[in-house]
């Protein structure tokens, strides 16, 4: 017999597998040509919605995001390449609309900081272990002197009484 | 050596705290305009219903410094800044043009101007918002200062405050006229 709890679990799992995030792209915006539509979706994911700022225009319900989605599709239908379409928007809104910022002098710090941190941390770890090794050499235990050995033997010898 | 290593976290902390302090209170939602020092995009917009004159690029590149204010009747901050745009038109002495952005009904802009007063030399109606996109508009109101050669020289995003009017826009206009 299947217990109700397990029923519920299966239902929940099935829901998890089958649900999809709600789309901001409305059916009337979509292009009939599935290849172009797919390209438009990919480009839209690269573009920041300037009203909400941390969503792409593909995810955003903002009015401007919708206008930009329609514009992206218009450019593609007009025959622009993906790059030309992105450039068209960047010309108007600047690099900031790109969720993936380009590599150029103004963004060297942005792109360089992970590598800088990695090198910085690497040098730190290297120095730490080298010092530990040096410590191990200089502070390694030395053999007992004769006097120490005799004293230790005295202490360890079972008592005579 | 050991001393210097011990000091590193303190130095990092002071540097970070300094960076945060400098940026505290800075409005990070303001996006730098890509169009500064670029020529005004080519456009031609129809007039508001019942008026003769719309707005085109040639109005903004006629040898005189001009101002372009993007407004909409549905935009609450636009209502707040409107008296200041009127002051700007009066005190600067330059032509202030209006771009009526994305009205649901073309009459809305007319009703709005009839109610609040019309400081604009001419108003163009951008129902689709496409000219707004060409200007890199992402939130109304926005105010552009354009030099005599038709180049965008300054952009203010958000409502104009008395402080911005007095200390930023008017001096900038004067500087461009000088």
Descriptive notes:
The complex is a heterodimer of chains A (161) and B (178). Chain A is mainly alpha-helical and 161 residues long. Chain A has helices spanning 4-18, 34-46, 63-77, 82-93, 108-138, 146-156. Chain A has two domains: 4-102, Cytochrome C biogenesis protein (Helicase, Ruva Protein, domain 3), CATH 1.10.8; 106-156. Helix content of chain A is 60%, strand content 0%. The model of chain A has no long low-confidence stretch (mean pLDDT 86). Chain B has a single domain, classed as Glutaredoxin. Helix content of chain B is 42%, strand content 18%. In chain B, strands 5-4-3-6-7 form a five-stranded mixed β-sheet. A two-stranded antiparallel ribbon of chain B has the order 1-2.
Defining traits:
heterodimer, A: 161 residues, mainly alpha, Helicase, Ruva Protein, domain 3, 2 domains, 6 helices, elongated, B: 178 residues, alpha/beta, Glutaredoxin, five-stranded mixed beta sheet, two-stranded antiparallel ribbon
Short structural description:
The complex is a heterodimer of chains A (161) and B (178). Chain A is mainly α.
């Amino acid at each position: 017999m299947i217990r109700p709890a397990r029923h519920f679990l299966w239902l929940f799992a099935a829901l998890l597998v089958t649900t999809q995030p709600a789309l901001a792209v409305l059916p009337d915006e979509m292009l009939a040509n599935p290849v172009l539509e797919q390209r438009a979706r990919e480009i839209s994911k690269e573009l920041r919605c300037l009203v909400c700022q941390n969503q792409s225009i593909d995810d955003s319900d903002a009015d401007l995001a919708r206008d930009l989605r329609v514009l992206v599709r218009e450019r593609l239908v007009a025959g622009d390449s993906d790059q030309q379409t992105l450039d068209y928007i960047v010309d108007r809104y600047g690099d900031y609309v790109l969720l993936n910022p380009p590599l150029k002098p103004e963004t060297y710090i942005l792109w360089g900081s992970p590598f800088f941190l990695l090198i910085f941390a690497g040098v730190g770890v290297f120095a730490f272990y080298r010092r530990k090794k040096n410590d191990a050499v200089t502070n390694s235990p030395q053999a007992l002197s004769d006097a120490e050995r005799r004293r230790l033997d005295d202490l360890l010898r079972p008592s005579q009484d | 050596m050991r001393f210097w290593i011990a000091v590193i976290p303190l130095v990092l902390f002071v540097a970070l705290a300094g960076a945060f302090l400098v940026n505290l209170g800075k409005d990070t939602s303001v996006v730098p305009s890509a169009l500064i020092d670029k020529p005004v995009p080519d456009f031609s917009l129809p007039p508001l219903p019942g008026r003769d004159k719309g707005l085109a690029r040639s109005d903004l590149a006629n040898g005189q410094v001009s101002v372009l204010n993007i407004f909409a009747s549905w935009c609450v901050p636009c209502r707040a800044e409107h008296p200041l745009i009127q002051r700007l038109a009066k005190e600067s002495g330059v032509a202030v043009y209006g771009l009526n952005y994305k009205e649901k009904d073309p009459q809305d802009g007319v009703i709005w101007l009839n109610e609040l007063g019309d400081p604009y030399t001419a108003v163009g109606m951008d129902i689709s918002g496409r000219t707004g996109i060409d200007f890199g508009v992402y939130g109304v109101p926005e105010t552009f200062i354009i030099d005599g050669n038709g180049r965008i020289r300054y952009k203010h995003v958000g409502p104009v405050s008395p402080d911005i009017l007095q200390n930023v826009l008017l001096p900038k206009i004067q500087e461009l006229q000088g």
